Amino acid sequence: MMKLKQLALAAILPSLSFNCVADVILTLPDNVRLLAINEVEANKGWDSIFKGTDESITLKDGENQLVYQIDHYFYKGDTQSERYRSGPMILTFTAENTNLQLALPTFSDIEQARAFANLPTPKFTDKTGKPYPFKHDKLSIKGLAISHDYADYVKSYNAQGGTAAWTNSSAIAIVSPISKASTPEIIPTTTVQSTEPNKIQTKQSQSAVAAEKLKYWFNQADDKTRKEFINWAINNL
Fold it and tell me: How far from the centroid of its chain's Cα atoms is residue 163's Cα?
């Protein structure tokens, strides 16, 4: 799973890397899924099926803001599992040249995870294990949607001055995965006139792109993750 997390971040976040000093290292628990970093969305589209979060990320000095959710599997034997994903939460902090760690409790069942998500009390510590100051809040999302633009949601939240609002809009997230992997070759779509046959061709091309990306991430996953995906796919057919 950790190898998959490293591969996923290497593939989706190269556009966030710049040649500058970045020396705030934040260690994340396994059951956390990053949604946005400093108003930049971390997971989008088909890739998010297999995306995880690297065990640590490296950020610029100053104020940083993460949007994350609990993403935890509860296993029932070798072939069955139940997945819990909480609503989005916001973590904002200010630091320079240090190592920090976000920690969540160990959940034994979904009820415990839901109870925590309802009244979240994460632990945020420095490298010596001492509590480090941070701001935390839940990010409210209205309505139902297949996918959410968490970057847009958190921008609105920040503009309204929420409890964990981020004010340092000049800061950019720097993510340094341990290893890098090449992204799959994507079949480009072409601009066509709005005739019915061409609409069908465009949809087929888009489906081919999605299929290629899905196959790529499935092949990169370990056996455990493949089983989790197959269970997810069967339950969502």
Answer: 22
Strand spans (E) along the chain? 24-27, 32-37, 40-41, 56-59, 62-76, 80-85, 89-95, 98-103, 123-126, 135-138, 173-174
Tokens 């800061």: give the residue: 171
Assigned token pair, 233: 């796919």
Residues 48, 43: Cα–Cα separation, whole Å: 5
Q: What is the pLDDT of residues 65-74, one digit of tens each?
A: 999 999 998 9
Q: How many angstroms separate the CA atoms of 51 and 219, rounded? A: 13
Pull the structure tokens for residue 179: 């290893």
DSSP string, 152-166: HHHHHHHHTT-TT--
Give residue 48's pLDDT band: very low, low, confident or very high (50, 70, 90): low
| pTM flag (> 0.85) | no
The SS3 of residue 37 is strand
Q: Please, where are the H alpha helices in 69-149?
A: 110-118
Q: Which amino acid is it at 6?
A: Q
Neighbours of 207 (CB within 10 A): 11
